[in-house]
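Notes from the 1:1 (GR / supervisor)

We went over the backlog. Supervisor wanted to see one worked example end to end before approving the batch request, so GR pasted a single chain during the call. The sequence is below; no edits were made to it. Supervisor asked that the structure be written out right there so they could see what the output format looks like.
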Amino acid sequence: MVARPPEGPALNRRRLAAVAAAVAGLVLLAAVGWALVDRQGAWDFVRGYAAAPAGASSGREDEVARGARLFAWGDFGALNTDAMQSVAVPWKVASTALLMAHTPPGEPLSAGQLPAILQRYGFLHPTRLVGLEATAPGDTLGLVRGTAVRHVPPLAVEIANTGCAACHAGVGYDAQGLPKTDEAWLGSPNTSIHLQAYSEDVYAALRQAMRDEPALLAAVREVWPQTTAREAATLRAVILPLARRRIAELEAAGRGPLPFANGPPGITNGVAALKLQTKGLASPELEHGHTAIPELADRTWRSALLYDGAYAPPQGARFRPMRPVDLTSGHRDQLAAITTFFTVPTMGQSPERARAAVPDGRAVMAFLATRRPQPFPGDLDEAAAARGRRVYDAGCAACHGTYDAAPRPRLTGFPNWCGDVGTDRARLDAMSPDLVRRIKASVYSGLLSAAHTACYAAPPLTGLWSSAPYLHNGSVPTLTQLFGLEPRATRFTVGGHALDLQRVGISYPQGYRPWSAPGEIDTAKPGFGNVGHEREFAGLTPAQKRDLLEFLKTL
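Structure output shown during the call:
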């Protein structure tokens, strides 16, 4: 029998090296095998990418119900570590930092305080979702969350991102025009959401909290006691070092989390956000393509999307008249594919990952094709509305569509007119030839025809009464001011507001307490000019304008 030599340190090192080489070989083999099937998957593995699993779908759901659920709570694959580079946040750290910033020293921290804090930015916590016939789950509407997990190495982090409903689910209103914040209408605009303030405050809270990282991690355990050991280790070893580095980069550049101005409540700057995601944001201080959040009812009548019709299906005329017979499932699916590209600027998705969500987009568009806005809650003068219908047919229908004679009129034809009514041009100019080239060079080239149209597309006016402020940039607070019955304000407050059901627009009645933090729209600032549509109303008498206003309440 041959005697075995003693196992000294050198032999142990050799064995460890052999094991490490074997493990490395297995990892390399797995990566090569992945690359043969999915090159993106192999690269994701190597670079440390992680994503939350897709949400489960009930086999009992039809397409419309599934679309409503996705519209309210869907993440479209955007709960991943790439999205955390720009839009998404590590939820437990970010929410805890916000709590620390809003809680007096010495007082306990609780996740139960978050809804009140988030409501200041216009986020809703409804108990009823109109359009999704189910009780709201109680989470913050518009903040979608999920835990991204990796097994090699063992990582876990809960990620939050902004979903459709952050901007496109608005409060209901009672007969006095007061908001009902316990009720949200899917597809209506959230004219109080203030994403710029939310982003800036999360960043400021993180900067402050990370001055004492052990205290921040202790606070995370206090607020979120269910945090797993794996996630706690991930926060300590991965997330906080990344956040520390990112904050240092922003401080060295002398700027905050957003290099461009997103706008006051109810306003976004999606073109600038898209330029940021596609590495085309050359002069952020010059990006003034601000837009108001629109009502989404009857958007399937559009032949091209966005305020300027910049996105259209690759086949067919960009601006073409639509009849009921044209509202086919094929047309709807073409629009749905385009809408998934919206997750690139709004959720920080890459075009490749955004395209993977096209099936979910089809379900959402199936839902939107069915939805109706909230009926006007106040009193209606039916005789004036009947007269106003004639005014509308004579002067508005050629651009904004023809409606039937029902008490709640429905579109029967839509011209998809695009032209110039004298409104602020900043948004038109923002869709630059360079950005169009970047979109065409993306994986969406077969799904989306991008163009610099140099014109504004007239939208359907369905649900107009609840979507103040008006014009594409939200620069006019009421319809009476838009029509010229009153002078247009040069500055006004927006956010957490009520509605004046007579003037049809933003109102802060005496003694009223805004439900979210208000902001200001200053029409002297670039991109917020309040001009436009004057000549279209110049030929109407005051009585005709009031009749037209009454008719628009019925849509």
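Supervisor's comment: DSSP finds 21 helices and 18 strands in the chain.
Batch request approved.
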